[in-house]
Predict the structure.
Amino acid sequence: MHAHADAADTAPNWPDDIFATLQRFDVRQVPYVPDAGHSKLIQRVLASSTMRGIPLTTEEEGVALLAGAWAGGQRGVLLMQSSGVGNCINMLSLIPILRFPFLTLVTMRGEWGEFNPWQVPMGSTTQGVFELSGVQVLRASNAAEVPAVLEAAASQAYNALTPTAVLLSQRLIGAKVFTK
Amino acid sequence: MSKANLLDRRQVVSTLLADRKDVVAIGGLGASTNDMCAAGDHARNFYLWGGMGGAAMIGLGLALAQPKLPVLVITGDGEMLMGLGSLATIGLQKPANLSIAVLDNEAYGETGGQTSHTSAAADLVGVARACGIKDSQSISTMAEVEAFSTAVHDVSAGPRFANMKIDSASLERILPTRDGTYILNRIRGDLGFQPI
């Protein structure tokens, strides 16, 4: 479960905003690794008649999948958690080589009240890994800015072929808590 | 050294692509991509020079985007071993138009011929079948290769998987273009998609 840092986020509708933006940009393939922060968006995708949610066994599969989707004329978006970014590094090399539109939405762990030290190393280097790999990084830290950040990210990824990652901060999602 | 009674990789790939019609073919990183080029360059050939382990997933993305088009992944045992999870992902999606042919020489030919896991332990056909790809078979004759080549065109009965035991002879490299943007945009153009 998640404890929400901001009272306004107790019934978050930002996943609906993300879904609406993806729909408007005609996103068709949505590879994902199951993740609590993305659970509402994944539900919306799986219930959609125009998008196909594709569960992966590891995040790097999603990078290759999106290259194939674009070869076949479809746009996609990769949903993952910060820990999964490290699994993608070599496959990210396909993006500048093939020059296909790449958008990924990353729920952050390892920051803003994280209780699990094992999440901190990858959470701390997520942005750096992307930037070293040639992927631009945008961040959304509160629900109000999600629509504008998503609009900018989708626009530059799909219209300008600028590989883009949106980091959905742990402050937005709420730090994960485990109760005994 | 080559074992006896194993298939010739170039003959296998030439047969798979001989009457390809509208097939889009994805070659895995390594000799399989060279084999595809040796069989004849084609606007619908997707040559991989990197991203090892990604060939089957590129095939899945393409197959889901173009469900009426036969999509054929031709890759090696080493490349397939690196992306074993993708067989589970494909088994779940069940794209009826996707076929995967593994050229299995039980070795990493590109890097000096070190033996691969398929030489003694890993059964790729068993893995594919256990991942939900029911039409998974081991192929050891050219007649079976020809039958598989025909089946690739049936876009309503896949996904299908075949592991083909080939000899490990080192052949002259026939190198395709390594300009990735050109390769991908050539396929898109042939499918009727305009540049952005």
